[in-house]
Protein 1
Amino acid sequence: MSTLPHRGSWEHDGFAQLPGIFPPTTVNYLRTACLQLFENENTGSLVFLKDNAAQWYEWVAQLIDRSPSLLSVITILGSYIHVLASEVWVRALGAPELAWHGDGGPLMLDISDTSQVKLQFFLTDCERDESANLVVVPGSHNRQLPENGMAETDLSRVVTVPPRAGDAILWSGDTWHAVRVNKQRQPRVSIIVAYGLMWPQPCDYVPVQGQFRKHASPLQSVLFRIAERHRFRRGTFYYPSADDPTVRLLSEKLGTLPPLPIRILRHTHLDRAAESKTI
């Protein structure tokens, strides 16, 4: 397994590291909020998950349409997208490994190259070993994970992604990934927002309810399919026109956000050359 810092190339590796998305003040605010939630709602588990978090907490909902990293999502998926999930994760000291998996299935790989992406905002440093590190197999987003386990050639290509607090990791739902054990005293704290094309819907998708539906911003209303015309109905699909609110709002968002620099390490058998690129 590579121990070199590996920030990834989206096209080549199926993931990319977006450095410095949040300033320290924002990181501290979000981390404190997540740890307070962990303290109030955790029932003794070493791995804490708050699902559908944007529905309940404004500080998560604001990440949906106000984060500058949304530009990268639109660049990859286009404008006709919705939010699949919003999650708060805390992995405490002693939290076990999460086994290798991909978030998509074989059917989705046949239908679309990329139908969903995840943005994971890291609120603690994960540069040290055994700090609940995210590990991935670069280039695996174009293949289905074998049912009988990964081959030695794949295991030899595993890399550890080394985000610092304030960074985000953007990866395809089909990229093979796992999480290492946490042996550090500091919990690993992060927030995940998953985006997907408008036409597929996860089997465990939960629509937002309650007050969030009344107070959502116009763009949140589209991304969470609150508007009647965007609600998912089994066996139907909607083809957007140029004046569709989703396309218009996200196109406006695309035009107001600056491009994000992504540090890329292209790996070969002989060397690893670093270069800068913007998507």
Protein 2
Amino acid sequence: MSRFFNPRLFFVDADSVIMAGAKLYFYESGTSTPKNTYSDINRTTPNANPVVANTIYFGDIFLEGGDYKVVLKSADDVQSFSVDPVKGDQSAGIHFETLTQVLTSDLSSESIVTVSGYAAVGDGGLSEWYATGTTIAGSAGTFDLASGFVYDLNGAQFKHANAAINVRAFGAKGDGSTDDSTALQSALTFAASSGKPVDFVAADTGQNYTHATGLTISSSVAMRGSGSSTSLLKYTGTTASTYALTVGASPTSVSDYIRISGIGINVVEDDTRGILIQT
């Protein structure tokens, strides 16, 4: 990941006075379309745009792939400079706003693809995918998220590259109304085969991850949330004696550990249940 200059970045005005509260705006090169920067090297937390300095310094600014236009303004919005282009992360490959755009693009010459969202920029679905070198024409333009794959318009295969699985990158919305069953189960299924932890990032304020179908963990999986009230699974299934989460649907496939931390589970119907652990 490329950092925008070194830590403790600051600017001075024409009188050599530090520009407290200065603002850095980041755009797609040659446009006025905002382009994301991030506060961490893994690109999980987008910065506000503009990025605003405190009394002296700017915070961490990490760049994604592609060229930027960068504009500096004072605290009272007087422009100091505009630089275009500024090179983004040269290791980041090609960048898309959404994962769904990958399906309609020819990526045969790309090795890495990064996206800012699953279906929309800012939906929390930031992710990175690497080319496997395999092309499956019959899978062209499709997802196989349960296996951790996406395919471009010609069937070039790209595999999930992040160290952890963000459920929003797999299509979960966490808005309290959308049925997130398929997205959540795909993330858990891929976690079982890949060994990656599953991150249930905080749902929308006051909302939850609603799922009408019970979820299943069939092998060693770590489920991580931000707290039982913010990373809340709400099971809306109506079939009596069904479970929100079943651990070990096939007893012989359960390995040494299942970890669930910082996640709340809520069931709506009186006749449905929380967690079934099979041994």
